[in-house]
Design goal:
This protein has a domain of 120 residues. Helices cover 37% and strands 25% of the residues. It is α/β, with parallel strands linked by helices and 237 residues long. The two termini are 37 Å apart. A four-stranded mixed sheet has the order 3-4-5-8. The chain has a three-stranded antiparallel sheet with strand order 9-10-11. Strands 1-2 form a two-stranded parallel sheet. It is built from seven helices and eleven strands.
Length: 237
């Protein structure tokens, strides 16, 4: 807040923040200053080998059930959200609505792949994506690397991990070997067991992080990370 770096981005659940004229007043009461509300923002990172623009938006854009559907937005925000909380129902896991999730991720990827010197960060699908790859697709690439290196320890570990991830989400893009690494998804803040995923950009890196409970303590773990200089190099290949 002291750097004036906080920005509020609205999504399809944010009926109040996106429509109520008193929403800016509420934010000012919370943070002590006027906070602008956006549907998306672009962050520019100046790098030794050029620059990269990072477009951050919720990602419901283009989803017929969530984009411009006033009834759906009202129902989710006013009825379904509070009901989920009261009944402790979690429908936001990566295993939910696989077909819709796959199609929407494909739309997001195709848009990002058509851009120059820009990456897209969204949420909405409740599934982490890093460099345009889901966790399952990353595991398959790791398995290919382990097989080439005849790394039996890594192969054994991946053989245990892959079936678990396939139960969550079994779709693999046929082009996952050659996808342009311009699409990222922050994932979900309400996984089973209290796990939270998110994206961090700091110290010249972008990271996919997981917050999990271990022995009753919230622990931050880095799932994947890369330097932004490497990311812009890969984007321009």
């Amino acid at each position: 807040m002291d750097r004036n770096a906080f920005a509020k981005i609205v999504g399809n659940h944010d009926l109040y923040w996106g429509n109520d004229p008193f929403a800016p007043v509420s934010l000012k009461l919370m943070y002590g200053k006027i906070i602008k509300i956006y549907s998306g923002i672009v962050l520019r990172a100046e790098l030794p080998n050029g620059y990269i623009d990072i477009f951050c938006t919720h990602g419901h854009q283009g989803d017929a059930q969530s984009d411009g559907n006033k009834f759906s937005k009202w129902f989710v925000s006013t009825v379904w959200g509070p009901l989920q909380t009261f009944l402790e129902i979690n429908t936001n896991s990566p295993a939910t609505n696989d077909d819709s999730k796959t199609l929407h991720n494909q739309y997001m990827y195709e848009w990002s792949a058509a851009q120059t010197d820009l990456v897209l960060i969204t949420g909405h699908t409740h599934q982490p994506v890093f460099k345009s790859l889901t966790h399952l697709e990353r595991l398959y690439l790791d398995m290919e690397t382990a097989i080439r290196a005849d790394d039996q320890i890594a192969i054994e570990k991946l053989n245990k991990e892959i079936p678990k991830r396939k139960r969550e989400y079994d779709y693999v893009n046929s082009s996952f070997h050659s996808m342009k690494p311009g699409y990222f998804n922050s994932g979900c803040c309400c996984f089973d067991g209290g796990t939270i995923t998110g994206l961090e950009i700091s110290e010249g890196k972008i990271r996919l992080v997981r917050w999990i409970y271990e022995d009753g303590i919230s622990v931050r773990k880095v799932a994947e990370e890369m330097f932004l200089t490497d990311l812009i190099r890969d984007l321009n290949r």
